[in-house]
Specification:
Layout (H helix, E strand, L loop, with lengths): L8 H4 L8 E4 L7 H8 L8 E4 L18 E5 L7 H6 L3 E2 L4 H10 L6 E6 L6 E2 L8 H7 L2 E6 L11 E2 L5 E4 L14 H13 L5 E4 L3 H9 L7 E2 L3 E2 L1 H9 L14 E3 L1 E2 L3 H7 L5 E3 L2 H4 L2 H4 L5 E5 L3 E3 L4 E2 L2 E2 L2 E2 L6 H10 L4 E5 L11 E2 L17 E4 L2 E4 L5 H10 L6 H12 L2
Helix pairs in contact: 4-5, 6-7, 7-8, 13-14
């Protein structure tokens, strides 16, 4: 099948105009060669907006020196752009990840140019590899659709893209960005054990990445017939898949298959999804749709928090007014899991920060974002226990949360609860 001739990255980015809104494929598969070429044009461009999930690696489009040319507005803020957002030279679009694609598809958020990294073509189609996210939506609506074909990108099954959809093709061969995570702490392992006790055999899981999710995966090593329907997974989940703990045999949809939208981990994870029919890398419109999530019985979502107040409001995107990360898919999966027959929505957090500050607090910090409202909260787990707030009144919630707070914080929390509720 004939396809467009390959052109240089410099030629490809000539298609970007001042004022354009540019979508980037994200996480481990950022099209760095296009970003570098576009930044070379910074002096001749103005007001180019970037949209993406969090990006790994260099982010020159968010630097103060390119402020007049580029304006970054991500759906999620990673470490590379966090200082820029907090200094006001980049910005953040609050969005449940499920709705990021909807913003493009409905035109609520313009998308003039889509710049993505893809696999080598197979039968006229390419895979978005480790980062499908909302790129299919961007590729549907954008004026210019630029692909970087990279043999390092795994050909993952799921939502494949016809090569003919692109208006320009470039090439790159640099490896995808990988990430390793610190070994779980003793606190992480205890939280992981308590979460595992809430998860029955045959459950279907959603969890994130990092030391605590890896600890939860370690706590699940003796479980059987688990499924995985998640927005992302990493090495901890891979170990459960390879050991047979995750086999998907009890799923009602995508039976026997692992479903995700993006990955970040070791090269071993990326190699695992390459041409693996047991893995489906899907549009965020599918993975994070609460209606689809709810179709799998026994769905268990496990998400983290920066802090939680005594009424059950969960902050997971900011430290006070300072944006730290983003809403992500937390509420998508909390709601989907609660609608699933036998499902559970778990918020797992250490009782204190690494610096010893309480994470169960009388009130959220001023300006803190509520990611999971108190009307949506269900299970909360710390190293000191697990409590179910669903159907509980404000005063009942306060007592339950105090019971799993750090022992040295409980007296102050009890005083705060008495001042608030007068009993």
């Amino acid at each position: 099948m004939q396809h467009l001739p390959y052109i240089s990255a410099r030629e490809a980015v000539q298609r970007v105009r001042s004022g354009d809104h540019v979508h980037l494929s994200s996480i481990a598969s950022v099209p760095q060669i296009l970003i570098e070429a576009l930044c070379e044009r910074a002096g001749e461009l103005a007001d180019v907006h970037f949209h993406h999930f969090h990006t790994e690696g260099p982010a020159p489009y968010g630097s103060p020196e390119h402020r007049s040319a580029f304006w970054d507005q991500g759906f999620f803020v990673g470490p590379n752009l966090r200082p820029s957002v907090q200094e006001g030279v980049a910005d953040y679009i609050p969005a449940n990840l499920f709705e990021s694609q909807l913003m493009y598809r409905t035109g609520a958020l313009p998308c003039d140019v889509a710049m993505v990294q893809v696999s080598e073509p197979v039968d006229g189609r390419v895979s978005l590899g480790t980062s499908v996210d909302c790129s299919p939506a961007a590729l549907e609506v954008a004026r210019e659709r630029i692909a970087v074909v990279n043999p390092q990108v795994p050909f993952a099954y799921g939502d494949l893209i016809p090569l003919e959809r692109f208006t320009a093709l470039a090439r790159d061969e640099r490896p995808l960005i990988t990430s390793t995570y610190a070994s779980p702490s003793g606190v992480d392992m205890e939280i992981g054990r308590r979460c595992a006790e809430l998860i029955p055999d045959g459950a279907c899981l959603q969890m994130g990445i990092g030391s605590m999710p890896n600890a939860i995966c370690a706590g699940l090593k003796d479980h059987r017939h688990l499924g995985l329907h998640t927005e992302m997974f990493s090495d901890g989940a891979l170990a459960l898949i390879r050991s047979g703990v995750i086999d998907g045999s009890c799923k009602a949809i995508d039976k026997g298959k692992v479903v995700a939208s993006f990955l970040l981990g070791s090269g071993e994870v990326y190699r695992f999804i390459d041409r693996n029919p047991a893995v489906q890398m899907r549009d965020i419109a599918y993975t994070n749709d609460p209606r689809a999530i709810a179709l799998n019985p026994g769905m268990v979502s496990i998400n983290s928090a920066i802090e939680i107040d005594l009424t059950g409001q969960v902050c997971a995107d900011s430290i006070g007014t300072r944006i730290y990360s983003g809403t992500g898919g937390q509420l998508d999966f909390v709601r989907g899991a609660k609608l699933s027959p036998g499902g559970k929505a778990i918020i797992a957090l250490a009782s204190r920060t690494a610096k010893g500050h309480p994470k169960i607090v009388p009130m959220l910090q001023s300006g803190a974002g509520v990611v999971t409202p108190r009307a949506d909260i269900q299970w909360v787990v710390t190293e000191y226990g697990a409590v179910n707030l669903y159907g509980k009144s404000l005063q009942e919630r306060a007592r339950l949360l105090i019971s799993i707070a750090h022992p040295e914080d409980r007296e102050a929390l009890e005083r705060a609860a008495f001042q608030r509720f007068h009993r």
